[in-house]
């Protein structure tokens, strides 16, 4: 079949097998061109390994540091007439290339929040890696079933206590408008902590530790977004920020149990991913950020950013902020970038957006997540959706 993008709101319901594989290859190329990176972490577990920052982490550690890996992600399989989730194609494209490079790469597909998938993953680590030196937790999910109680929690992306008015963007039409977002109830705020807070991260570390598959000097990373005043009302000071603050608590608890270098929360920059596209205000901020950071020669996508995390920020001694976090968002949050962002934000309207931001690029980056709009791919060719590229 001819596979084309089908966009519904902030998701695309199709994915292109060859485009996704080409995207994985492009990220591998980026890391290989930069050359080998110095890391003793040669056995890696990436939870949320198939797209965005998790995929970039698996690629950087494998192709930069020569690591073997087990990955975990949640995917939709293809059929003869329906395409898979992009992560399904990415996982297979990654494994094929990692194995060709002589690396071990095994992926477990299923619900990472469940005890079954934790047990399956532990079995794979035992069989293929023995133990892991690095655990990257890069899950982004709107829903979590608590394996102990069976309760299903859904996250809400809302302000915490008062109504927020902000500019927002309809990425399909290019219209900039005012959005009014009502505050979350206490129940919604707590449900968001259950989904995106540190509880599942701690459960993973406890399960891995109990099974004896964590190396003595292991490190685990969990990714957060802090952002600036422009996104604080909806993100950092909203339900998501409240959930992300729980990561700092969880990191401290892991360090208490396993040592001072065992757990770090890592603050990353805003990039276009499936997860970030669903957050109000963030696509507008991202459209502006792409243009501003590009003009300043500072723009990074997932792979460039995670490459800098491992190549620069995680080299010893690791520099930490006052809250014990690793900061890779330093370029995005620099005074120069944020001053320019604020000046432009105040002038933003449907008419001025084309001059102030880069909506075209934002749309291209979004489509690339699903394997569309990638150079060298023949989108007019008949493709079986079960193709592994
Ligand atoms: N995108 C950004 O701008 C940004 C910025 C800073 C930090 N972060 C953080 O980085 C982390 C990763 O986000 P992303 O933007 O790369 O997201 P993403 O949507 O690209 O990736 C999410 C990953 O989680 C997996 N996943 C989701 N639910 C799962 C489940 N139940 N079981 C197994 N796997 C599951 C998906 O398969 C995918 O591999 C998140 O913690 C996010 O808050 C993102």
From TrEMBL:
**Record-marked site positions (Plays an important role in discriminating NADH against NADPH):** 75
Keyword Cytoplasm in record:
no
| Positions annotated to bind substrate | 225
Highest taxon above the source species: Bacteria
The record's keywords, sorted A to Z, are: Fatty acid biosynthesis, Fatty acid metabolism, Lipid biosynthesis, Lipid metabolism, NAD, Oxidoreductase
- What's the catalysed reaction? a 2,3-saturated acyl-CoA + NAD(+) = a (2E)-enoyl-CoA + NADH + H(+); a 2,3-saturated acyl-[ACP] + NAD(+) = a (2E)-enoyl-[ACP] + NADH + H(+)
Protein EC: 1.3.1.9
Could you tell me which InterPro entries the record lists for this protein? Answer: Eno_Rdtase_FAD-bd_dom, Enoyl-CoA_Rdtase_cat_dom, FabV-like_NADH_b, Trans-2-enoyl-CoA_reductase
Domain Trans-2-enoyl-CoA reductase-like NAD(P)H binding, chain residue ranges per copy: 2-80
What job does this protein perform? Involved in the final reduction of the elongation cycle of fatty acid synthesis (FAS II). Catalyzes the reduction of a carbon-carbon double bond in an enoyl moiety that is covalently linked to an acyl carrier protein (ACP).
What this protein is called in its record is Enoyl-[acyl-carrier-protein] reductase [NADH]
Q: State the species of origin.
A: Devosia pacifica
Underlying gene: fabV
